Amino acid sequence: MRVASEEELAEAIRSAAGPLRIRGGGTRPVGRPLAGEVLDLSGMAGIRLYEPGALTLVAGAGTPLAEVEAVLAAEAQRLAFEPADWRGLLGTEGGSTLGGIVAANVSGPRRVQAGACRDALLGVRFVDGTGALVKNGGRVMKNVTGYDLVKLMAGSWGTLGVMSEVALRLLPAPAAVAVLCLGVEGAAAAGAAMTAALGSPHDVTGAAWLPGQGGLIRVEGLAQSVTYRAGRLGSLLAGHGPLQVERDPEACAAIWRRVAEVAPFHGRAGDVWRISARPSVAPAIVAALGGEVMLDWGGGLIWALLPEGSDARARIAPFQPEPPALAALSAGIRARFDPRGILNPGLMG
Amino acid sequence: MEMPSPSAAILSRKPAIVARLRRVLPADSVIDDSTETRAYECDALSAYRCPPLAAILPRSTAEVAAALRVCHEEGVPVVPRGAGTSLAGGALPTADCVILGLARMTAVLEVDYADRVIRVEAGRTNLSVTAAVEGDGFFYAPDPSSQLACAIGGNIAMNSGGAHCLKYGVTTNNLLGVTMVMMDGTVIEIGGAHADAAGLDLLGVICGSEGQLGVVTEATLRILPRPEGARPVLIAFGSSEVAGACVADIIKAGVLPVAIEFMDRPCIRATEDFAHAGYPDCEALLIIEVEGSGAEIDEQIGLIRQIAGRHDPAVFRESGSEEEARKIWLGRKAAFGAMGQIADYMCLDGTIPVSSLPFVLRRIGEMSRDFGLGVANVFHAGDGNMHPLILYDANKPGDLERCEAFGAEILKLCVAVGGCLTGEHGVGIEKRDLMGVQYSDADMEAQMRVKDVFDPKWLLNPAKVFPLALSAERRAG
Lengths: 349, 477
Fold this sequence. Notes:
The complex is a heterodimer of chains A (349) and B (477). Chain A is of the alpha+beta class. Helices cover 30% and strands 25% of the residues of chain A. Chain A contains 13 helices and 16 strands. In chain A, the strands form 5 sheets. A 5-stranded antiparallel sheet of chain A has the order 3-4-8-6-7. The two termini of chain A are 25 Å apart. The relative contact order of chain A is 0.14. With 477 residues, chain B is an alpha+beta fold. Chain B has 5 domains: 8-103, 2-Layer Sandwich (Uridine Diphospho-n-acetylenolpyruvylglucosamine Reductase, domain 2); 108-225, 2-Layer Sandwich (Uridine Diphospho-n-acetylenolpyruvylglucosamine Reductase, domain 3), CATH 3.30.465; 228-339, Alpha-Beta Plaits, CATH 3.30.70; 343-438, Alpha-Beta Plaits (2-Layer Sandwich); 440-477, no CATH class. Chain B is 38% helix and 18% strand. In chain B, the strands form 4 sheets. Chain B has a 7-stranded antiparallel sheet with strand order 15-12-14-13-17-18-16, sandwiched between helices. Chain B has a 5-stranded antiparallel sheet with strand order 5-6-10-8-9. Chain B has a 4-stranded mixed sheet with strand order 1-2-4-3. In chain B, strand 5 and strand 6 (117-121) form a beta hairpin. In chain B, helix 10 (240-252) packs antiparallel against helix 14. Classes of the chains: A alpha+beta (349), B alpha+beta (477).
């Protein structure tokens, strides 16, 4: 079922006889496999408002991410949270949509400095499980009018309502970039280098470690400033390993695309785990995991490739189980936003 | 401002309720003498006052939980209070409520520079969070202008902003986790020193919920390494429109200053009389602050000078020393105090899209003439968060009402151009009855459903945020 307007969307939900599988671009089949009729949002597309001087974009939830990124690039702006492309990782095709990115709260390497997708999300319009149209937030970056359901919708994977429109804060694309490539072996040594960089005043916008490739530290901004900060970081990290600095924008972009896309694990056998951790405990987690790992967010995000469990997919909750008091709150919110349990039921465990 | 009438049943049971609170809290933590409860009768929206039934000042999460359990069982409303600096009446009591003050929970629980986090008790003041880490070169970014006095718990309740959020975001962007006590006494932990919590983003909805979902007792906050330096410039313009256009051009050019502040002529003149900062006498001025090393600052200011030059500024003043920087900020920081010297004023807090700035300023000027009340504008221009100050005379009958009516019209204008009722102060009671201007009943129903889940009996700060008629049934239980 494909809908092209908020009215059609509300009617589709009101008249649904059973569960709905809500689909943006279909590039992120994460969570429990779902049954039910597909509700395709690709018709809810189009940029409704773009004000470069106000750093604001409003667009239909089904708008292709690629279209948004192209329009922003023409004005030298971008989505600062660096939405990551997981098609290679998950073996999917097609293109991500803006609504799908928001529903999954997809945030790439720049999260350490610019925040997550939820931090850039200014407003949403959505239809809840009863068919009611709800708006929250708006298109301005300071807004404390009523509860912040905007954050609640980000990362709710369609289970509380189906978004029809989203408003996002943008940032200027930087004039220059530098990546410090640090020959550092092992998660503990990499963690120490990344912590030193992120603890400096040099406004690091990416800190990752790929086995075989080493540590990667990124700075962005005005040209002289990038040169200055790359130099200072070079001195700061001198004791951590041999250093090379990449200044070519294309090459820098390619390096961080590999990190965002978890490229080292593409096409590999096994289970990929995505672990959010306190950076300082990442080395201990990595040691306990075994297998192959890469680190992003200064160690706060661990990607691990582990041997495929015989029936792990069936047994392991795809989302971290919550303590009982939190699980009760989440279940209570779902019961009120989706009383019939028809919106991606069970996807989040 | 209408508040629900207090429950006679609760008022008559005061001795029993106080006795139960005394059994779970130390003697000095329960205040019920009517001369002492007066201290809690209002917050910074001091036009509205009402002493509470009692005030409690617990010293730990366990004490908060024990006290809330008592209030829950007794069906007594609870109004959480940080430092009482709310400009929206967020901590205004009702006669039948217990004020839960966080003033005795101020400890720093953990500082971790490797993970760049600090964990504090929620009564700790905003500025003293930075004070705990600045010796090591770190700071906590959100800086509401009440930061010397306001508590982190209140900042979380109102999702407070500040002058520097153009670069660093507001409270919700710097809050990583909380320990929170729910109305029934259940203690929950949400988030922590890691980036992504599992499941729904409950932390996101708790921040900014105005103390209606639970009482936050501890918070994990992101701290940042302090930039090497900062420098402000002052730019004067012949019209507000031109100043507004200059702001948009600076943002578009890819410079991201940490702050862009705007003042108009009435505000400039009042602050000059008061603070003598040496501001040029002009229609509008911008204070723009950039950060970094000396060379980085030079590079950014060079770009700003170039852009401003296209808008024919009357004055472009760059600070060459600490003292000059201080003088540039002096007038802005003194603005509210200066206005208080010449009149009573009401401070508004609407946000508008930056592109609407010239239109909105012109309309405010027209309305000022229609209402016969003066207005001074001083605000965070980079993010469109306006603080028009409406001047009135509290001793003149009818002036406050006219001022409130004027304020409401300005806020409606903010919504009409695509903005919102409140950018950083919160709804509280002040904007409660205007919520329908921005949100439909269905929009507010969705928000109230969240409160239903966290606080099914609607005992936590119940008469705030939502229009009373809309929440009546829920509050009646």
